[in-house]
Design a protein that fits this description.
alpha+beta, single chain, five-stranded parallel beta sheet, 26% strand, 3 domains, D-amino Acid Aminotransferase, Chain A, domain 1, Rossmann fold, Dna Ligase, domain 1, 384 residues
């Protein structure tokens, strides 16, 4: 705790989520400490209290957490046993290991969601090809195969249309402790994300439900609120997210990614931290997801999640032909003074998320065009 009594929040992971937490922390007078693997990581470039170490090294975690009032996460990869060790030493871990494990293991998540009555695609743990074939006889081909642990941004997920394709996937080595999960493929009309913030004493707020567009398993574009989504289905999505947060005892931000088939919602994934689908909230909401995550893990009153304009559009900047991203500023900012650009300080690699752009306003078609143009210019897709 600082001299003026302000708490210190420790964030495990030095990625862009920790980086984007720096500004709201400074505004709230909250100290931040980051556990990063390198001083070149995204958050380590902008936060002055940095501990170097790995998230799976218990000694590094314990040393990092010493002096922190609460520990939270930039990612979900910390071993649960390590988090239990932190709690045993009186360190507040939010979300706690029991909650976070749902975002670490998809089989555990599916079973818990099924137990509390949350709608999910039909699923089954499979160990052999005949199990997949039996499952496909019930739900039909194609089938979605997932590793229960270790997958993100489309990694560890395969859509297979035949037994031969399934056999090829089963030959892929599983991550340690993982199982094969087979799921029904939902014929969705759109993908949605419902985000909520929940504090330890149970206060919760729900953000507008957004539409996400995925390309090659990576979130490319977010529109808030989801255009054309019937009000009753938007409320249903928020209610599902609030229920999941409460029943699984999540503290902090929770993103519930869903499939919408035009009639029903199905939960796809959970993320217990700020999430790519909420980056629009920095400019587009009265209280960003990053500020509300900090408020929630510190058990402070939560902020207003509502939009500041009818629409907010966020488009990710993916690595392309432009290595010096700063060189694109003159064009995109002169062309569109209302545009907001966030660069993550990452080395550019093809397809890597290296930043995002956001615009807010009334004309949705114009907002989408503006955001896409800027992101494409940063990626070198266009040059004017």
């Amino acid at each position: 705790m600082s001299r003026d009594g302000a708490p210190r929040v420790g964030i495990v992971g030095g990625g862009q989520l920790a980086r984007m937490s720096a500004a709201p922390a400074a505004a709230l007078g909250i100290g931040l400490r980051v556990l990063a693997t390198s001083p070149d990581e995204s958050a380590a470039q902008v936060i002055n209290d940095v501990a170097l170490g790995r998230h799976d090294d218990l000694d590094a975690l314990l040393a990092f957490a010493d002096g922190c009032d609460v520990v939270t996460f930039d990612h979900e990869h910390v071993p649960p046993a390590h988090l239990e060790q932190l709690e045993a030493r009186g360190i507040a871990v939010r979300p706690g290991p029991a909650a976070l494990f749902h975002a670490q293991d998809k089989v555990h998540m599916r079973q818990s969601l099924t137990d509390i009555g949350v709608p999910c695609p039909r699923w089954r743990v499979v160990e052999a090809l005949d199990h997949i074939q039996e499952f496909a006889e019930d739900v039909g081909w194609p089938v979605v195969l997932k590793t229960s642990r270790g997958g993100y941004d489309g990694k560890g997920v395969w859509v297979v249309a035949s037994p031969d394709a399934a056999a090829d996937v089963l030959a892929v080595p599983l991550p340690p402790g993982a199982q094969w999960l087979a799921e029904e493929r939902i014929d969705f009309v759109q993908e949605l994300s419902a985000q909520v913030a929940r504090s330890p004493h149970g206060q919760a707020v729900a953000y507008p439900v957004v539409r996400t567009v995925q390309k090659d398993g990576i979130c490319a574009e977010v529109i808030a609120p989801a255009p054309g989504l019937p009000e009753n289905r938007a409320v249903q999505a928020q209610e599902i997210a609030l229920r999941v947060a409460g029943d699984l005892n999540v503290t902090g931000m929770l993103a519930v990614e869903m499939f919408d088939d035009g009639y029903q919602l199905y939960v796809n994934e959970l993320a217990m931290r700020p999430h790519n689908s909420g980056h629009w909230s920095i400019e587009g909401a009265r209280t960003s997801q990053f500020e509300n995550h900090l408020r929630a893990v510190l058990d402070l009153p939560l902020g207003d999640p509502h939009l500041v304009a009818p629409y907010a559009v966020m488009v990710n900047i993916l690595g392309g032909d432009v290595g010096n991203l700063y060189s694109a500023y003159r064009h995109v900012l002169a062309r569109d003074p209302g545009l907001k650009v966030h660069l993550y300080g990452k080395q550019v690699r093809p397809g890597r998320k290296v930043g995002h752009v956001t615009v807010v306003g009334h004309d949705l078609d114009a907002l989408v065009a503006r955001a896409r143009h800027a992101a494409d210019y940063f990626a070198g897709v266009i040059d004017e």
